[in-house]
Amino acid sequence: MDLLNKLLEIKTRWQDVGRQLNEPDVMTDMKRYAQLNREYRNLEEIVEVYHEYDDLLSNIENTKKIISEEKDQEFRDMAKSELDEMLAKREPLEEKIKLMLVPPDPMDERNAIVELRAGTGGDEASLFCGSLFKMYSKYAETKGWKLDVIDAHEGTNGGFKEIIFNISGKDKVYGRMKYESGVHRVQRVPTTESQGRVHTSAASVAVLPEAEVFDIDLKESDIRKDTFCSSGPGGQSVNTTYSAIRLTHIPSGIVVSIQDEKSQLKNYDKALKVLRSRLYELEHQKYLDEISTKRKTMVSTGDRSAKIRTYNFPQGRVTDHRIGLTLYDLDNVLNGDIDRLIDGLQVAENSEKLKEGSLYE
């Protein structure tokens, strides 16, 4: 089947999904409605490019016809020049369409919950964890996304031992942020190092798709709720009220503790959001494990133990080990300019999908 017919099929499906979205029984089923709405938005982008491609092919055929029938040499030369320009556009547009025809991860449209944890390296790891949080904060800002801290435990000399935050907005938040999951390494000279030796520290990043309320059948009888006083660095009490929340999901053993807010109710809501997403991740991980057996780039397998990126301060470079991409632009990267890295990872993953023959059916 040629590309044009495939695009026409997608347009037909897009129109069908649009009709379904207006049906009363679909509008009362929120889970079904959300699924169809996501599919409609994804297909709409392809339909827009289909119209552009269809117009280009029509113009190419019309121009060829003019060249074959026109007697005026000057007019024919003008038409040939226009034809060359259109033919030059066709191949890049077809490559763009092929990449768009790779079906997206159904989770890409979701918001994301990001967990940063300091790894090996003591205080230096906590400081690096703080640098990563600043990097993602700046990145979210450039995208017009909203970032809300869910819980944070500061390091003794700055940074964070652990910080959990939610990023919400348009433009496929999880679809971009998911590539950040894994171990990030930093190589730099600590301020306390008198000999000028470079130390290596690490922080782990976990990115979860935010679960929607109807994704998980979370029963209250399966959750044990404990309250305790919030504590700060060194264990000192932050307040004397039992505002901190610990939720334990008994069937899975997952434990979530939140103490960021002074209100017990707000901490409970945040803990519930994280718990729901972690439970949802268990199901989503089965999908990630399945695709990781097919693809070599390991760009979206959720493998938290994989060393994915190194930030080298002495050389001012950032290297993403999954695709072998090195940028000598460390300052800008740490200031939120990570689109170049994520774009490279997306292209690598989509190229592998194309090799598999993964296209919209």
Provide a descriptive summary of the structure in words.
Helices cover 47% and strands 20% of the residues. With 361 residues, the chain is α+β, with helices and mostly antiparallel strands. An eight-stranded mixed beta sheet has the order 2-3-1-5-4-9-10-11, sandwiched between helices. Strands 6-7-8 form a three-stranded antiparallel beta sheet, with helices on one face. Residues 233-238 and 294-298 have low confidence and may be disordered.
Question: What is shown here, in short?
Answer:
The chain is built from nine helices and eleven strands. By secondary structure, it is an alpha+beta fold.
Give a count of the beta strands, DSSP E runs of length 2 or more.
11
Give the helix/strand class.
alpha+beta
Number of helices: 9
Mean pLDDT: 84
In the sheet with the most strands, the strands line up as: 2-3-1-5-4-9-10-11
Indicate the overall shape: flat
The percent range for strand residues is 15-25%
In angstroms, what separates the terminal alpha carbons? 11 Å
